[in-house]
UniProtKB/TrEMBL annotation:
InterPro entries recorded: DUF411
Organism lineage: Bacteria, Pseudomonadati, Pseudomonadota, Alphaproteobacteria, Rhodobacterales
Official protein name in the record: Metal-binding protein
Pfam families (alphabetical): DUF411
Amino acid sequence: MTEERSFGTLLVRHKLDNGIPQEMISCHTGEIEGYMIEGHVPAADIRRLLDERRDAVGLAVPGMPYGSHGMGPEDQREAYDVFLIRRDGNTEVFTSYEAA
């Protein structure tokens, strides 16, 4: 196994081991104050999560929706949802962003 493939496998394992369901996995992973942040989650949603201190694994934006933070101009954004990942593995919509 190449070093790159080994790192990718370890990263996916880290995500799954820390409560990110497979269907929520995306391109970027972060951790802040005990929460996992997966994908292109807007900073405002992260701040809201930190303010509310929800009992959750964290937030996720699966895939890479066009116009989400870092993925093209917001004025051309496609609709997408930010999901709250609960500790039992269930998810719920935390914030919805309409298409621009």
